[in-house]
Amino acid sequence: MSLSLFTSAPIVSAFPSLVVLWTTDQFDILRIEQTRVENYNIHTNDLIKELLSIDQKHGIDILAADAGSVEFRLKRIPMGQEETEFRHWLQEFAPDSDTPNTLDEPIKLWWD
Questions:
Q1: Would you give the distance in Å from CA 54 to the centre of its chain?
Q2: Closest listed residue to residue 42, CA positions, set 66, 68, 60
């Protein structure tokens, strides 16, 4: 087990909070925050499956989460065709999100 730190911006508060979590699974962050996408019928476990797929391909570190968004950083930056495919996935999976100019910046997925 290890400590995980992430920020949370609860809906009832304008101020984000720092959450310390003792866990072996960084995806527990999404389970605790119950991150989901109701407009697109994506539940917490569905979101975790998508992010696990990205984690297996590129590695991710989850930086922040709340009820309707998640922010992460890629450990291995895709290049060439992989980058094109990843950007396409971002646009398809989270069409309301802004894609960063460079993939070494944190990526925030959110949905309206």
A1: 10
A2: 68
Residue pLDDT, tens place only, 25-81: 999 989 988 988 888 999 999 999 999 999 999 999 998 888 899 999 999 999 999
- Any idea where the domains of the chain sit in the sequence? 2-110
Measured CA to CA, the distance from residue 100 to residue 19 in angstroms comes to: 25
Burial of 24-62, coded b for 16+ CB within 10 Å and e otherwise, reads eebbbbbeebebbbeeeebebeebbebbeebbeebebeb
**pTM across the whole model:** 0.83
